[in-house]
Automatic annotation (TrEMBL), chain A:
Name of the protein in question: Uncharacterized protein
Native organism: Alteromonas halophila
Automatic annotation (TrEMBL), chain B:
Name listed for the protein in its UniProt record: RNA polymerase sigma factor
Domain RNA polymerase sigma-70 region residues, every copy: 24-90
Keyword Transcription regulation: yes
The keyword RNA-binding is annotated on this UniProt entry: no
Recorded GO MF terms: DNA binding; sigma factor activity
Family to which the UniProt record says this protein belongs: Belongs to the sigma-70 factor family. ECF subfamily.
Any one biological process term the GO annotation gives: DNA-templated transcription initiation
A Pfam family matched in the record: Sigma70_r4_2
NCBIfam families for the chain: sigma70-ECF (TIGR02937)
Keywords, comma-separated and alphabetical: DNA-binding, Sigma factor, Transcription, Transcription regulation
RNA polymerase sigma factor 70 region 4 type domain boundaries: 120-171
Length: 226, 176
């Protein structure tokens, strides 16, 4: 029998848990192995000693001194609160830096660190932006066209007015000059006729005078020489 | 009379109930003091050790999970404090070393109070290495099973059995 078996047997005996076979082996060891028997006897003496052991009563001592009020702190005094607070701050920083996103759409919760959108979202986003851009452009163009048309109308009116006014004045000036020219022509004509008549009158006067001075000639035609 | 369970007293003490803590001390003071006498061999050191044990227990009270008996947990701390006591007293001596001076002679009060046989056994225990003395103390005086002893001392049950086996031979020698 090994030493370990002896330890086990003695331990089982001390705890009163020997099986039938172990009890037989134990009893055999007690009779055959003096060393083992001595240990068993010593164990018995120890048991007896515990039963008869009496010791002086504990001395008077300050039991209250062992009590320090370490009552559980309130929840707001929890020691882990600063650590938890710092951990949350670090977590928030990490979430910001890594672009952590939480999205709820169409009864779907998405968590992710990527800022990349899926194709559908990108298309919708682009479409929205293009629509907005188109509407803004249309509004600008509409305003511009309105302004241009208005300016054009105004310019046309001004031009028409100018043209009408200028043509009227020119015609008036032209007529005035025509009248002036005609008047001048008439005046020239009158002067010419007057001069012709004067010359004729002089010629006639001269002939009359000549005839009166030369009666021989009076039978002839005084104007035939001329 | 109905006695409040240890675990309930521990919870109350943790909430700041001084009376509950003092009740716990009263309940185990004698056992711990006697344990300390047997481990140190004299009442003066035993009184110091007892106070040290209760201080340590109170400081560690919130570590008590309540998944085992309070008594076992208490004696586990007592053992650690006892080892610490021996380390302070004899820094050069290991747990498995036999004391150079066989014993700190039990004080005369021991002989006055105890029977001759028990005094002799306690005196002989002082000659054992601390590791063996702890097993003898817990097995015979503490009435713990080998499983509990192993748990308290942080060793395997087989080691505990082996230490007791060796301790019995040594005690026999000391008593002869």
């Amino acid at each position: 029998m090994t030493e370990n078996d002896k330890h086990t047997l003695l331990a089982a005996w001390l705890e009163d848990s020997l099986t039938q076979a172990q009890r037989k082996a134990f009893e055999q060891l007690c009779t055959e192995d003096a060393d083992f028997a001595l240990r068993v006897e010593m164990a018995g003496r120890c048991f007896s000693a515990t039963e008869s052991f009496t010791a002086p009563a504990p001395p008077a001592w300050n039991k209250s001194a062992t009590f320090t009020d370490n009552a559980s702190p309130r929840w707001y005094q929890w020691q882990g609160l600063p650590v938890a607070s710092m951990a949350m701050s670090v977590l928030a920083l990490v979430m910001v830096i890594t672009g952590f996103r939480v999205e709820v759409s169409d009864s779907r919760l998405s968590l992710g660190f990527s800022e990349r959108l899926d194709a559908q979202e990108v298309a919708a986003l682009v479409e929205d932006r293009v629509d907005a851009y188109k509407q803004a452009n249309q509004a600008v163009f509409r305003d511009y066209a309105d302004a241009l048309a208005s300016q054009q109308r105004q310019s046309s009116a001004e031009l028409t007015e100018y043209l009408l006014a200028s043509s009227r004045k020119e015609r008036r000036e032209d007529f005035a000059e025509l009248v002036k020219f005609i008047n001048q022509q008439r005046s020239d004509d009158q002067q010419f006729y007057a001069r012709q008549l004067h010359n004729l009158q002089q010629d006639v006067s001269a002939l009359e005078k000549h005839q009166s001075m030369n009666p021989l000639i009076s039978g002839g035609d005084p104007l035939a020489d001329e | 009379m109905f006695e409040v369970r240890d675990e309930r007293l521990v919870k109350k003490a943790l909430k700041g109930d001084k009376k509950a803590w003092l009740t716990l001390i009263d309940r185990y003071e004698k056992q711990i003091f006697h344990y300390a006498i047997r481990m140190t061999g004299n009442t003066h050191d035993a009184a110091d050790l007892m106070q040290d044990i209760f201080l340590s227990v109170f400081r560690s009270l919130d570590n008590f999970r309540g998944d085992g008996a309070f008594k076992a947990w208490l004696f586990r701390i007592a053992h650690f404090r006892c080892m610490e006591f021996y380390r302070r007293k004899r820094p050069e001596q290991g747990l498995d070393d036999t004391p150079e001076q066989p014993c700190d002679k039990p004080c005369p009060e021991m002989h006055l109070h105890g029977s001759q046989q028990s005094s002799a056994v306690v005196t002989a225990m002082q000659a054992l290495p601390l590791a063996q003395k702890a097993v003898v103390e817990l097995k015979f005086f503490g009435q713990f099973t080998f499983e509990d002893i192993a748990l308290q001392l942080g060793i395997s049950p087989n080691t505990a059995k082996s230490r007791l086996y060796s301790a019995l031979a040594r005690l026999k020698l000391e008593l002869e």
